[in-house]
Amino acid sequence: MDPRGGNHEQQARYFAGRAVVDGTALTQAQEALARGVLEVVLLAGLPPYDIEAAADGEETGVGLAAVPGRRHALRVLWRQDATASLHVAAELSNAQQAAMHQALRAILSAHQLWVEDGPLGEAPVVLGLTRPGAT
Q: Is the predicted pLDDT of residue 43 greater than 80, yes or no?
């Protein structure tokens, strides 16, 4: 499936389970949240992480991770290309990672998703498809 074209809603459903970076099964609430997050990611033109493609070395993309002890929350992570990271200094790689997490936080917030407050460089945690009080 091509993450750059087609029906974003259908593609978000396709990638929802495949974008979980550690392969952990999501709760029903997290699955619904994953579809919403991935639809936003696809609309922004970013590739979703695909655990099956990662097995073949294609690790770059926006991944998801369950938040331990929080059945209604998802952490949204940028997965850098591991090979490309080998060709830059660790400080630069860390700065790129933080910048992508900051960009993800801004994109998700702009689409009115409920993003937990946290340091800008950390992977954002999404709590809901709409912020409380958002219209």
A: yes
